Amino acid sequence: LSIRRQRQMCIRDRNCSVYMGDDSYILRKGAGQVPATFLPGEGGLIMLGAHNNSYFNCLQYSEIGDIITLETSYGIYQYQVVSTETVDVSDKNAYDFYTNHEQLLLYTCYPFDTLSSTVYRYMVHADLISGPSVVD
Predict the structure, then answer these.
(1) Spatial distance between the Cα atoms of 71 and 48, rounded to a whole number of angstroms
(2) What is the tens place of the pLDDT at every residue in 56-113?
(3) pLDDT at residue 1, as a whole number
(4) d(CA 127, CA 134)
């Protein structure tokens, strides 16, 4: 996973590994994928979380139009940021498990300078702009 500013290429570039699951052990190693979500190329919601004070600290600088790249063993996928928001952790309307298009959702605790879990999440929504399809 890497995040790049489209208009100012490589001003900030953050790479991290992505693991299946989102428990505390996984989040110490990198980003974790919510198991109930899709893989890149499957056409649905891909939901990745990471700690706000390490791997996803850069999310606070996300802007609409930024490009997020996911590199897999079967292809490279690019997503363009379409919105950001801060939501209550219990707000189930902040994402759509049944979306009819491929969307990447990155989330982390908010505010960014907090060192413990909070009741808010910062979310970055990005739509697929390129990458191979793995389903018909």
Answers:
(1) 14
(2) 988 999 999 999 989 888 999 999 999 999 999 999 888 888 888 999 999 999 999 8
(3) 59
(4) 17
- Kind and range of the H or E run holding 4: strand 2-4
Question: Residues of 42-55 as b/e, b for ≥16 C-beta within 10 angstroms?
Answer: ebbbbbbbbbbeeb
Token pair listed for 38: 């899709």
Q: Where are the beta strands (DSSP E) in 6-132?
A: 14-15, 18-20, 31-33, 45-49, 67-72, 75-88, 103-110, 120-130
pLDDT digits (tens, 9 = 90+) for 49-67: 999 988 898 899 999 999 9
Q: Is the sign of the CA dihedral 111, 116, 120, 123 positive or negative?
A: positive
Question: What pTM was computed for the model?
Answer: 0.88
Q: How far apart are CA 33 and CA 31, in angstroms?
A: 7
